Amino acid sequence: MSPAALFAAIYVPNFTLQAIGRCEPELRTRPLAIIDGPPPTYQVVALNRLADILGVARGMTKAAVTQFAHVTIRTRCRVREEAAHAALLDVAWSITPRVEDAAPHTLLIDISGLTTLFGDAEAIACEIASRACTFGMDVHVAISANVETARIVARALPGPTIVPEGQERRFLETLPVSMLSPGQELSEVFNRWGVATCKALASLPVFALSECVGQEGIHLQAIASGKGARPLLLAEPVQHFEEWFELDEAVDDLEALSFLLGRLLDQLSARLSARALSIAAVQVNFQLQPSFDNAFDTSRELLRVKPTARTFSCSLELPVPTRDSKLLLKLLRLRLQSSPPDAPIQKIHMAAQSSLARVTQGSLFVPTAPDPDKLELTIARIMAVVGEGNVGSPHLFDSHRPDAFHIQKFSVTATDRNASRGITKRLTKNNLQNRNPHSKKDVPTIALHVFRPPVPARVRLQGNKPVFASFQGCSGKVVQASGPWRSSGQWWEEQPWQEDAWDLEIIFSGESPARHGLYRFCYDGIQEKWFVRGVYD
Amino acid sequence: MLATSNALRLHVESALAGRVVSPFRFQEPQPITASAGIAAVDQLAGGLPRGCLTEVFGGISSGITSLLHTALAARTANAEVCALVDAQDSFDPGCAQFAGVSLQQLLWVRCRNVDQALRSVDLLLHGGGFSLVAVDLSGAPARLIRQIPLSFWFRLRRTVENTSTILLVLSRESNTKTCASLVLRMEREVARWSLQDRQYPSRDFHTPASLLDGWTTTAEMIRCKARRKNIAVIGRAKTFANQDAELARFDLRSNHFLSVDSSGSAWPLPSPQDQSQNERTQNFG
After folding, report:
1. Domain-by-domain residue ranges, chain B?
2. Would the pTM count as exceeding 0.80?
């Protein structure tokens, strides 16, 4: 071990309680008791200081705790503890990538060489505690050149503690042996010997200790002496971020749900910010309250259970990564407004796909474009008005079928990529125009104003040529006709198509002055009917 | 006091004479314009004004959709982002791509009624950042368009003011009244049909009796904020001299003409790369 090695231990006291308090910050200022166990025999496993003052104690039954009117009772939530542990890991990874995941409530990190970045050891400890506080957790931080000493001191002493090199034994000597986490058998041996503190254990003769309790006793004695050096078992940084929220009572109101979603998004955003990442996509899974009305089919077979969907998913894919939790909340709200879940929600699971933060640099020569974040929100709002699938960028299929296109997601990033190409194209076009100023390409082309769906029409033929047409209550004489332009496709599939297209100029009768119109008619060979595809305009 | 101020005013005017015309009269800055994609229209109106509302109206087959496509093509060719609010879902992306519109840079909002279109355009303009926001109301029933209150158009005009967005409204009748900075009326002249002998590359293709070549469209400038002298009233008779100054004629050509020019062949044959391998296109007599 190099002499410059320095380790920090992060310990979360009362981890079960803090995991609950992280998701519900308002509970921190109230007397709170956490209960756990099989349903009939719930017992208090954790409580805060306010509950302790009121007289609540560990091991009390739920019925006993309910006697205290002001004490809030929560059931222990494993998923919240997992989320809190993941958040704690993000705090550590925001400081250094060299992190050991020692326990759900304890992390060991290598802070060697970070003094140039954060300052001295005390500044590093304060920085760690500050970052953990932003994640809603109060932590103990201890810094030492010995990793085991740091772990034990962090567990024993509150606040940032700096153990100077060479004084590890002095810090440990007053601590009880139980802080070293000996095995049950070894713990009984130490009790029989009357070894209660680390100082007593450190002062035992090594060879005699080895003969009596073996290598484990020697290892614990080295730790108690502040000499137990070992390398860190590094944890691999994860790239997926998840948050859970389990509700005691199901929620069916969007306003209340938005409040919870906003809290989860804030937590995710803070975790990703700590890792210098952004959110590229969000997946929200709701566990719905079971509905017996829907679960059983009473009309046909009483006891036959239908496979009802108990979960509801909602996903957001962003064109550019963002950390703006308010923007994400607005998008989620709009999505849920357009397609709400069909039952009250009991549990929320939110997963974020991380991505590197967007780095853009403006250019003087690129035209302004909508802000991607704002554009996403605008599109979501318009989508709530016109419906999903009706907003986007058209993309043509490689097909001769009329109206063969689909709507794809509109994003400005694709435009940015083509910006330079567009300028080049413009310059090239200008050059071409300069070369041939009277090119017919400069002449605008006629456009088709499409009728969707095509309008049914009646057409009178004379020698296979339309001479009279009527549709939508209008009728008129065909004065010019061009066609038929026959096209067909997908005749090998279940839905073939075939149509003869005609360009018709019609003079509508009964109107003064006479109204002309240039239409695109088509004869559907499958349905054997005439339609108006659109009007040239 | 009044005499002093008048004297001071005369003094300033005389001092600035020849350099500043009417220094005490507020002059609105001329809006920056962008090309509409049609040279004749650009010459007539100076292009489409940015930060203003432009209305283009005309009857069936008058060419307003063609003008929309050329305007979109001109903006997207300049790497600008455009939006089209389609009140009756009548936009043809195939025609637009042929006209030169870069579809990747176009946000298409397909509405089912006028109410959806108005709400969408409001959201788009408040979102900002678009170079051109076009509202195609030409397919909507005229009765519903007439029911749009004038205050709505004023609000849209106020929203785009001091931005670089062109707000283009297309309809069959004029509705925006004084809210529009530029009003163009389009009218179609006689359509051109050709009956030509062509050399056909393959006998599999049908010989058409005639082809729609296009038509000539007349664009009349009804209102132009930048050129106040040319303000006219719809339906009022005008002298021929004035009419010529406010009219622009341009040709709209059918797609097959461009194919003849670009490929050199006499028939708009799809290239082997473009043609779908799984489909066939034939013309039978």
Report:
1. 29-195+205-263
2. no
